[in-house]
Amino acid sequence: MSSELNISKDSESIPYYQKQNNEIELFEHAYNNQLPLLIKGPTGCGKTRFIEHMAAKLGRPLYTVACHDDLTAADLVGRHLIGDGETYWHDGPLSKAVREGAICYLDEVVEARKDTTVVLHPLSDDRRILPIERTGEVLHAPPEFMLVVSYNPGYQNLLKGMKPSTRQRFVSMRFDYPDIETETKIIQQETDIEHSISTQLIELAHALRVLKDHDLEESASTRLLVYAATLIKSGLDPIEACRAAIIEPLSDDEETVEALMEVVKAKMVVESNE
Description:
- By secondary structure, this protein is α/β, with parallel strands linked by helices.
- The chain is built from 11 helices and 9 strands.
- Helix 7 packs across helix 8 and helix 10 (about 240-250) runs antiparallel to helix 11 (about 255-274).
- The protein is elongated and about 65 Å long.
């Protein structure tokens, strides 16, 4: 029996995603061959939208988990609850995804404790099983199930990094911010903003990204550019839109914010004077 699975062709129901490289082809091959996938890339570069796009394209349900320090194995697998005077088992998102043959996406997986991510090991090798210790049940993943995790390599340190024994269980792809042409298309598609304004925003983003690792911990993401374009499209002054949607989210330091606003005024001056 062929391992290839049907792909939905209803483009209207598929979230918009602008292809950058061969990521769609690689995802489909990983899915068809029942391989887990790791996506590395900076904040706001399109990782989550890509997963939403692929889940819809493949016609699979999607369970997304935003990982954090307090995430436990029980949060993923499930736990016993008490209701109506009795105890019953409640599946977590990972167990639900396995049972339903869905895609389970763990966003920023390195934020989770290492003893939590260990539960992924039997699902991310050739066993493709999820043992539920509290009930004694062993779930066998159907061919449609796929495990996808992501993280921002820029956040990694000795305390928050993916263990090699975990990382090497995944097929991996790297995302970055799109090139100028692609990012312009994304902003226009998402907001229907004028081409001239989207161009100004892209130039601003590239000027701010040069400052990454010097004065800023994070760069101006594609997501923030979309936010700014949305505010401008609704009638907010471009300078104020950039302050609220791009600059303030990048830094809490007042001097840094004011310095970055000078860059905004230089790049958006034509738009604000119109």
